[in-house]
Amino acid sequence: MPGIRLLPSAVHPSPVELVRVRDTVSGSRALRDPALFHRVRPGVYAPRTAWERLPPWDRYLARVHAYALVNPDAVFALASAAALLGLPLFGEARHIHLHAPHAARSRRFGDVFVHASVDDREIVERGGCRMTSRSHTAVDLMRVLPAPFGLAVGDAAISPVQGGDVEASELRELARDRADSRGSRVLRLTTAALDARSESVGESVSRGVVIWSGFETPELQVEFRSPGFVDRVDLFWVGADAIAESDGYEKYLAQTPEQTAERVIAEKRREDRLRRQCTAFGRWDMAAAIAVTPVVTELVRLGVRRVAAPRTGLLTPMRSNPRSLPRAARQRNRDETTPRG
C-alpha cells in the first residue's frame, strides 16, 4: 500500500462549531438539551440553530469532522474524502465512508461504512485528517455515482477553475488499473467524457445529460465578443449555432437587494448580447438537468443534433440517488453543490 503523503493545504473545515462532551469542564447537561444543541454523533454536539441553517452537503461535512474528532486514526474515502477535499457532493450522503485496505471484508455499522479493497489507494494527510487522495477519491466516486454526477466529480478534480489539481490522464490510468470490475462500464464512459474546461458542477451534470441523452457533445467556454465585452458561455453547438447556460442562482445573490438586482440586470444584458450572436439560446438549472426531460425538450427546441441512442439507464438514478439521504435529494437543485473554500 502506498505511504501517506502530507499535503500543505488544509481540509475544508467544519461549517459549524463542534463540541465534544469530554472537552467540556462543565455544561455537559446543556449540550444534551435538544433545544440548544444537535447531537452530530455520540459525544459530539453542534449548536442547533446553526446546524439547522446548514445545507445538506455542509451537514455531511460536519458529520465527517465529528467522526474525525472521536476517531483520529480514521482514513476517509468516497463521499467523506470528497467532503474534506472540496469535491462535489450531491445532497447529504447516508454514510461516513472509511478506507480499510487490510480488512477481510467490507462492513457497515450505524452510519459508518468500512470499505475493504483489493486495490491500493494513495492516502494523503491534510490538517490532521487522513483520506484517499483527490485522484483516487474521484475515480472511486465515478464508479458508484449516477454517471452525470460522477462526471461532475471527475471534472472538478481536473478543472483549475474548480480547484482541481489532477490530470485527466491520471484519472483514466487509475480507471484502467482498477482490479475490481464493479462500475467499470460507467467508469469508462465518464473518464472518456472528462473536460477540464468545465467551470461548475451544474455545467458538468448538464453535459452528461446532453451526451447520454444522445445529443452532440457541446463545446465549452466559447467566447463571444461584442464592443466592450467578452462573454464566455457554458455550452455551444457550432452546427446548431446554439448556446445553452446551466443556471446556478447563487451567483445572483448579493449582500443587499440592490446588489442582487444589479447582478440580475447584468446577466439579462449579457443574455441579450449573446442572443444577438446565435440562432438559438436556452438555459436550465440543476433541477431540470436531474429531471432530464426538460433538458431534452430544450435541446430539441435549440436544434441540437441527436447523434446516438439515449442511455437512459445512466440518467434515471439521478432522481433518487440511493447514496444520499432522501431529504437531501430534494434539495440538490443548486448549481454549486459544494461551496469552494
Architecture overview:
- The protein has 341 residues and is α/β, with parallel strands linked by helices.
- The chain folds into 2 domains: 4-196, no CATH class; 205-319, no CATH class.
- 38% of the residues lie in helices and 19% in strands.
- It contains 14 helices and 14 strands.
- The chain has helices at residues 28-31, 48-53, 56-70, 78-85, 134-144, 147-158, 168-177, 184-192, 201-212, 257-275, 286-291, 293-302, 312-315, 326-329; strands spanning 4-6, 19-20, 37-41, 44-47, 75-76, 96-99, 107-109, 112-115, 123-126, 129-132, 219-226, 229-237, 242-247, 280-285.
- It has a 4-stranded mixed β-sheet. Strands 11-12-13-14 form a 4-stranded mixed β-sheet, sandwiched between helices.
- The longest helix is centred in the last third of the chain and has 19 residues, at 257-275.
